[in-house]
Amino acid sequence: MASSLEGTHQLFYGSFIYSKSLDQLEYLHDAAVAVSSAGKIVAVERECGGKDKALEKISSRLGWGSDATTGFSKEVYETGEGQFFFPGFIDTHLHASQYPNVGIFGKSTLLDWLNTYTFPLEASLSDPAKARKVYSRVIRKTLSHGTTCAAYYATIDVPSTNLLADLCLAAGQRALVGRVCMDQLAPSYYVDESPEASLSATRESIAHIRQINPEGDIIRPVITPRFAPACSAPLLTKLGQLAAEMPGLPIQTHISENKGEIELVKELFPPESTGAKDDSYAAVYDAFGLLTDKTILAHAIHLTESEADLIQQRKAKVSHCPCSNSAITSGAARVRWLLERGIVVGLGTDMSGGYSPSVLEAARLAALVSRHVAMGGDETAKLSVEEVLYLATRGGAEVVGLEDKVGSFEEGMEWDAQLVGLGVLGEDGQVEGQEEEDGNVDVFGWESWEEKVAKWVYNGDDRNTRAVWVKGRLVHERK
Ligand SMILES: Nc1nc2[nH]cnc2c(=O)[nH]1
Ligand SMILES: [Zn+2]
């Protein structure tokens, strides 16, 4: 029986690994995943008994033809030795505009880092040619590290923010794209002219993004107050009203990253001026209607118990950014503490506070930072390989509101995936079939799958990311 999807559906066969729960990975071998022309996982078959049988099973179950004339026109992707499919990574917080500065932070801390390195670079991206160069590169780079979905900050400039959205759509990377709102405590060369101007520029970007991708399946706009200190009360009021007017829109901002920043918030927003329930940072966002179940809060390092309660009640989400938090010495976020309080957590690279474009690196650093928290006295703080991979995929999906679509390989979800390949050594101790570019992970052959995954987390990089798909579309391939 010929299918209406004939010629466009795809079959993936071999080993699949994904998070079943926070502390458990699912390992499927000799399995097949069928992906429809719309990029949806329409069948998962386990224990197939080989690739040919897998094809037969899928064909008869879905009515898809099993040869080139009647069905699968595309190659059947099959994992080789030491390879497995893994869900695409979700970077829940990064500044596309800061990518040229990765690694450039000296000994700065947040507030001086913003003034010294960050604002001058962001302001310079109002040059369209420069913005195109930077944004094209950051999209290619993050895709090559397996990031299938990214929550991006652009700059205050509307045309280049819109360009970032155009480029993400063209490259096929899922993205939340936010024009940065900031109308105070910023240099005169890089600041919104007024709350009204900030709001109307934000509306312009939202309209553009909705126009280029009306279904919002790949690109979505996000309301982006930079952080409370850079926004006047009238601007926060307007952004809260905008969030209420467009309840589907996500919101992203920073919270409780640096102790000086927290003091500044207390000075700028005394509760009597905002009607907030207390003088905490979280209460400020809440007072302006910006703490909702669509809010992504980056950092959340120095929260108090009552702030964690409030965040949990509002169902706001946290983006944990261990690379940035260590690089610009902001602190060690207590991820276990957040999870225990029922707060959803994902990972963010926070480039260029963070120096690495890789969510795998963020996962590794989340594991390491959790060990520092443990050494500080909380024995339970340590995060396992399984847990950091959950944060990088399913946790991240929930943070960006896509938990029903991406983050694992279940029927009904979409095929956002990466093919991971580790270097399997032959008898002579050389990587089989590859002279060069064999990567940093050596598999000797006696490791269990759990051990192979641990070796990937602690030593892997983009050389192990062999191919990447978003919604069924191949968006990166390592030749
Ligand atoms: N890490 C980080 N924190 C911020 N707080 C306000 N702006 C920024 C930024 O660009 N990066
Ligand atoms: Zn940030």
From TrEMBL:
One of its GO terms (cellular component) is cytosol. It catalyses: guanine + H2O + H(+) = xanthine + NH4(+). One of its GO terms (molecular function) is zinc ion binding. It comes from the Eukaryota. It is an enzyme of class 3 (hydrolase). Its EC number is 3.5.4.3. InterPro entries: Amidohydro-rel, Guanine_deaminase, Metal-dep_hydrolase_composite, Metal_Hydrolase, Metallo-dep_hydrolases. GO terms for biological process: guanine catabolic process. CDD domains: GDEase. Keywords: Hydrolase, Metal-binding, Zinc. Residues 86-475 form the Amidohydrolase-related domain. Its cofactor is Zn(2+). Pathway: Purine metabolism; guanine degradation; xanthine from guanine: step 1/1. Catalyzes the hydrolytic deamination of guanine, producing xanthine and ammonia. Belongs to the metallo-dependent hydrolases superfamily. ATZ/TRZ family. This is Probable guanine deaminase. It comes from Rhypophila decipiens. The lineage of its organism: Eukaryota, Fungi, Dikarya, Ascomycota, Pezizomycotina.
